[in-house]
Amino acid sequence: MTIETDRLRDRVAAELGRARDRTTLLTGTVDEGDLIRQHSPLMSPLVWDLAHVGNQEELWLVRDVGGREPVRRDIDELYDAFKHPRRDRPQLPLLSPADARRYVATVRDKALDVLTGSRLDGTPLVDQGFAFGMIVQHEQQHDETMLATHQLRAGAPVLEAPPPPAPAAPVTGEAFVPAGPFTMGTSTEAWALDNERPAHRVEVPAFHIDRAAVTNGAYAEFIDDGGYDDPRWWSEAGWAHRQKADLVAPLHWSRDGDGWAYTQFGRTSRIAPGEPVVHVCFYEAAAYAAWAGKRLPTEAEWEKAARFDPATGRSRRFPWGDDEPTASHANLGQRHLRPATAGAYPQGVSPLGVHQLIGDVWEWTSTDFAGYPGFRAFPYREYSEVFFGPEYKVLRGGSFGTDRSACRGTFRNWDYPIRRQIFSGFRCARDA
């Protein structure tokens, strides 16, 4: 084995351990009743997520990469996300919390044994540790899902985190993004998932984009100006959903005298005017943008604003460069339990002067989820391809609940335009 392989193996083991530590925190801070309870029909019981991450690890690392005997073949169907909608999962004969914990621990021991004996090269599935990286990202994605479940949970607060840093200086206004081509996507990122590939050139007309995400204070102005009551600002589908769902404000907002309060992980306080608005659906974001005389950015516009360096003409891995995110670059990894005010991460600014494109809130774009030119499903169609179509809108950038392993300048998220239990916000754009 080479020194490089040993380093990669150490990195994989560390990333698997970080993900499991977070899973343990999210499932260990509540009692057994909260673990098996469904806190919203939109979400699985936490105990389902716990066993599911173990089952995926068993399927891909223990059985496929390692060629080992199954640990629990009998539970495969129970934890197949495509076999049972979330609303139905509480009725399944799921593993108990104790059994789920024993199961994921057994699987992890076997997966680490597979890692020890793997060359981490050869076939595309294991080259540069891809399958292990895929499982790291899968667990961290479910950790963010479990964090969203915690936000929907009723009861006393159980999660603690310090507040994000204060802004170094106020950030307002727009950035100008010049017309021209840029490289979108990647063909070189070792752990990039199939929908991020391949890299391709995209011609983007000149546009302006907000230097910061839309804030609570700005969004409250939209509400107070009757934005939810005026169909002029809403698409036909958006207005129909606003009426059907009786939307009047972002999820978790409530009236507080002449202002608004926001409940975060069991604690209610007045909204912080300078923080990015969170828990809005695509239709709400698009309506605000129309009210403001703007629009949502396309996915290509968002990525160009995040990655393009006009001085060199190249696309960076992240807005600040190619280095991995640190606590100085972005609000990621559940380090804080809320988005940060614009200007809090000056080291994370893009070359074009756009702030906090990574972390804080997932940002809605106007683009339907689809494969890039030359897309190939890998290693299975159900990761991305089955979701391609106009039913889903793309979100970019990650949130305060997204781990650094599952967030890059090329990383793509998607969801139904009505969803807002996710940590979703937005920024606006307009034609130049």
Overall description:
The strands form five sheets. The chain has a four-stranded mixed sheet with strand order 12-11-10-13. The chain has helices at 3-28, 32-36, 46-65, 97-117, 130-152, 216-224, 236-245, 282-291, 299-307; strands at 174-177, 180-184, 200-204, 207-210, 253-256, 259-264, 267-270, 308-309, 314-315, 362-369, 389-396, 412-415, 424-425, 429-431. It has two domains: 3-152, Four Helix Bundle (Hemerythrin (Met), subunit A); 164-432, Alpha-Beta Complex (paralog of FGE (formylglycine-generating enzyme)), CATH 3.90.1580.10. The chain has 432 residues and is an alpha+beta fold. The mean pLDDT is 97. Strand 5 and strand 6 (259-264) form a beta hairpin. The longest helix is centred in the N-terminal third of the chain and has 26 residues, at 3-28. It is globular and about 60 Å long.
Question: Strand order across the biggest sheet?
Answer: 12-11-10-13
User: Strand share of the residues?
Assistant: 5-15%
CATH superfamily of the largest domain: paralog of FGE (formylglycine-generating enzyme)
CATH topology of the largest domain: paralog of FGE (formylglycine-generating enzyme)
